[in-house]
Fold each of these.
Amino acid sequence: MLYLIGLGLGDAKDITVKGLEVVRRCSRVYLEAYTSILTVGKEVLEEFYGRKLILADREEVEQEADNILKDADTSDVAFLVVGDPFGATTHSDLILRATKRGISYQVIHNASIMSAVGCCGLQRNIICGKKIQDSEFLNLHGSFYTDLRIQLPLDGVASIDFLDSFQMDFGNKAHW
Ligand SMILES: C[S@@+](CC[C@H](N)C(=O)[O-])C[C@H]1O[C@@H](n2cnc3c(N)ncnc32)[C@H](O)[C@@H]1O
């Protein structure tokens, strides 16, 4: 199993309980060290987690992903990412590679700068309905959230039909 584990935004103690349990039992633990940085270094994390970490730079992750995925079909490998593993990263690539090789994966999310930025007064999701249509929103690379009460099925995931209806309303400029 490949685990992608978010480390949160502050220091060693921001990992989730679930993430820490996985880190402590994995056969190899990689620390992705190029999309973001914590306030503490690798040694502090190693001491708190009680594990040796393998630093993974951009080249290792993007050009030599096979090293990271090696034996992940028969043992557990953890890939640690500061913030959330999918907050402004391209780690979906690693998941696609794992899936292609028949390796299962699990994501353990954590706080991301993309949500924490709200504490500076910047909000990412105050835009809806007609305003999206009228604005330059569709010419940008952006995201929006839908109303859980009326728009989504109970599992909270937007259905393809629902997204298709937006596609019809907004034309070819909207992509998901
Ligand atoms: C490529 S993004 C990755 C974000 C990360 N995966 C997450 O979910 O928070 C990294 C950028 O986010 C910003 N960033 C990340 N953590 C931050 C923090 N604790 N304080 C301020 N900016 C931060 C910096 O601009 C940094 O270059």
Note: The chain has eight helices and five strands.
Amino acid sequence: MKEAFQPLFQPLTLANGSTLKNRFVLAPLTHTISNEDGTVSDREVAYMDSRTKGIGLGITAASYTNVEGQAFPGQPSISKDEDIEGLRRIAETIKANGAKAVVQIHHGGVKSLPNLVPNGDVKGPSEVDTLGFFNKEPHHARAMTGDEIQQAIKDFGHATSLAIQAGFDGVEIHGANHYLIHQFFSPYYNRREDMWGEPLRFPMAVVDEVVRVVDEEGPEDFIIGYRFSPEEAESPGITMSRTKCLVDALIEKPLDYLHVSLGDIHSVTREGEYQGEKRISLLLDWIDNRMPLIGVGSIYSGQDVLDAHATGAPLLALGRGLLFDPALVEKIESGREEEIIDYFDPEREDKHQLPEELWQAFAAGHYPSPKKH
Ligand SMILES: Cc1cc2nc3c(=O)[nH]c(=O)nc-3n(C[C@H](O)[C@H](O)[C@H](O)COP(=O)(O)O)c2cc1C
């Protein structure tokens, strides 16, 4: 390995005492290839095996905590006892590759899909017409009742219990990308006038419930992470100033890491007080080494890894990079970073060894991707 990469192969011990063997993380990636009932498919196990080589922490695709919150076709479920056996296969597969296995727990809220949830009843913090996964036409979502909100919180706890039973090393609370927890934090999606209209109330209630279950049922070194989106395009939307309040609140919780969701790790603040400042630098400043932060976004090549490391983020997640080249980390480790496939080749279905559905999604341009250069 080239010397410059060595710091990335240093282990990192989390607050709970568990140690990640290096600084590379598989970003949570929705693959749409679970069975129709949300149980794990054989293809999914093989795919997760291929994408967790060489990394320190592997995060699964967003997995629904209640079918009422299913937001993707072929989405994994972590909502019922029948899911445990398949989830155990995923956890074992990731761990056999030497990585810690974390399942991302998720509820789609208003972004859940009418054709996938019972009775087409889509709901979230407030009534809204909105677009779901790959849809061109908006669907309608209604406001949740207080009881439904309490149930959604309990569902995150129940999913955590199932994750423990399935042998995962941890859970990541999916508070990003416009899904339920994000929606409660967003002034665009949350227009409630009851106590749930307070932006931090729902996210913190979910964190507390997950922590409670881990305290009661989990091993001492069970990992709890939280993912958030620092800004959103909607107006009025989540701003960096609002995110600072979230970070301040999350820091007080017994979490093991924070995980920002960014399309480009070097991206800058869109608007407001911090306009033009690098988001990752602001976050690292605010966190001030009190908790590890996972940085992410457009890290494809060896040079990208070094540039991302230079931001100061202690952990780096790779999403599309590991989809285009599952051997990305191993190539760096063996000094072959020049051989990394750091683009999507729409003419070479065999090149990236992607499941058919993901291949099609990239070929159709549903996800942005660097082209061959
Ligand atoms: C195919 C695909 C599926 C994704 N699924 C999820 C998901 O399930 N949960 C999540 O938090 N983010 C998801 N994301 C966002 C990624 O985790 C990541 O933040 C984003 O792709 C930027 O990182 P990258 O440039 O390394 O791909 C997805 C992204 C892609 C491309």
Note: The chain has a mean pLDDT of 97.
